[in-house]
Amino acid sequence: MKRILQLEGLAVLWVSLLAYSRWGAGWGGFVLGFLALDAPLLLYLLGPRIGAWGYNLSHSYVGALLCLALGAGGGPPLLLAVGLIWTARIGFDRALGWGLKSARGVAFTHLGVLGSRR
User: Fold this and answer.
1) Which domain holds residue 85?
2) pLDDT higher for 117 or 110?
3) CA proximity to 21, closest of 75, 88, 73, 71
4) Cα-flanking dihedrals φ and ψ of residue 104, to 5°?
5) pTM flag (> 0.70)
6) Based on the structure, what is the number of domains in the chain?
């Protein structure tokens, strides 16, 4: 099942990149947005529960799909670009096997345990 979810993430990444190449707002902004989505990892400095909450909020499709819907539905075009960057980043992480985090720690995800703790 993990491999299926990784392939799904790869498909989301690929489709997001294709769509961004058509409706995006420049590749410099893409790179900045892509990297900025890991800023919530800093919340782990406040503890694993807060870190997991912040990471999961920024790596859930809910906000990304809301941006896509608003941007595609006549809202500011920047929302469409942000939604595409956001879905690409989530797809990238899922393709690598990185899932939503557990309050037990950063290595514990819905796709399994990361790193040497396996």
Assistant:
1) 2-117
2) 110
3) 88
4) -70, -25
5) yes
6) 1
End-to-end CA distance of the chain: 17
Whole-number Å distance between alpha carbons of 54 and 43: 7
Angstrom CA distances, 99 to 17, 39, 51, 95, 108, stand at: 20, 16, 14, 9, 8
Phi, psi values for residue 44, rounded to 5°: -65, -20
Closest to 81 in 3D by CA, of 8, 22, 35: 22
Query: How many CB atoms are closer than 10 A to CB 102?
Result: 16
**CA–CA gap between residue 88 and residue 30 (Å, rounded):** 10
78, pLDDT greater than 60? yes
Q: What beta strand segments (E) does the chain contain?
A: 101-102, 105-109, 112-113
Exposure pattern of 71-100 as b/e (b: 16+ CB <10 Å)? Answer: beeeeeeebbbbbbbbbbbbbbbbbeebbb
3-state helix, strand, coil in the chain (%, to 5): 70, 10, 20
